[in-house]
Amino acid sequence: xxxSKPENQRCRLDFPALARTLEGQPVTFLDGPAGxxxxxxxxxxxxxxxxxxxxxxxxxxxxxxESDKMIWEARETVAAFLGAHGPASISFGANMTSLAFALAHxxxxxxxxxxxxxxxxxxxxxxxGPWLMLEEKGVVVREVVLRPDGRLDPEDMTRKIGKRxxxxxxxxxxxxxxxVNDVALARRLSQHVGALLVLDAVHYAPHFPIxxxxxxxxxxxxxxxxxxxxxxxxxxxxxxxLEHLRTDRLSTQDDSAPSRIETGTLNHAAxxxxxxxxxxxxxxxxxxxxxxxxVSAMEGIAAWEHSLAAYYTNQxxxxxxxxxxxxxxxxxxxxxxxxxxxxxxxxxDVARHLGERGVFVWDGNFYAARAVEVLGLAARGGLLRTGMxxxxxxxxxxxxxxxxxxxxxx
Length: 410
Ligand SMILES: Cc1ncc(COP(=O)(O)O)c(C=O)c1O
Prior knowledge:
By secondary structure, the protein is of the alpha/beta class. It has helices spanning 5-12, 40-52, 62-82, 96-108, 129-132, 154-160, 183-192, 212-215, 268-282, 290-316, 347-356, 369-374, 394-408, and strands at residues 21-22, 25-26, 28-29, 90-93, 116-120, 140-144, 165-171, 196-200, 219-223, 233-237, 322-325, 337-342, 359-360, 362-364, 383-387.
């Protein structure tokens, strides 16, 4: 379904945070890659959980039954969002990083000295650190090289995935440069050698529809606070895989999927918000099923965000002293996240200049520290990152451009 200016203007009314002002001026949120704002139905779902059915799970009274039902329905809703087989393939956790550690720990128990895990130089540390820890037990971790143009080197990926490879851990989209990676290649190569594929979809999920079955991935991780929901991590596991993993868990814990990797009491109220976030996104789409509506909405939102990011990129590179990093917008397979540097000004100085004027963007490495290092930007303070969301507008971008032009000329 088309998502253009009228839909964008209408959706903005749903986000109470957009009414925030700074010194009498509205603020501009272009910080979505670090977490988006939250629409009213998500806030209402969290409040309603606390008001109406706050309880622990598996009890013999109505608020507990309602909690069980809500959590199961949230798994069904997220399964529809990701194209997953069903609710049993969706686990929840504190955030993506915690789930990645739990998964790496469990998968690591199967590995022996000399086994190999392939990671990338472009990934967020959350999809590197947990795998690098396996080096302690003699696992060899190999890194796919990031090219200066912001893409992973496909030939290097082909060389690095070999017969000793047991796990391939790749991001679907870069939170630093917006690159969309060739996960079909990662799937082909990993399948060829019988390795498991683990995808980090944290930056991809807010901007593109996902179909875990079409990708054929074994595991996929994402985080609801990047797509208008609360702080909850999500793990998709291909049916049959989680049941055979030796996860960290208590003897008292339900050892079937999807609970097998979920430790302790989950954040029930936030999970109610995750369900509402997917339903909110789907409310902008068309179709007979929740899945169809979610996919149609994501396609519309993606096109809106892509056009804003392309506009920003075209304009910002005309400002003297600005360098845009990463790939261009000639392909729709590009996340609407744009990183720049400004000659003579550190990213944090530029971000502060903008922040003081009510324009919120991020500076630094955004935990994609290896990518920033490989690009030679670590000593310069990394990048200035702008991210488009469904509520972003042309006016937001023009305000940002004016602020950058001001500091670049100073
Ligand atoms: C690409 C990517 N992967 C992983 C993470 C970590 O997610 P979480 O904060 O849920 O642990 C982030 C967070 O910024 C991210 O952008």
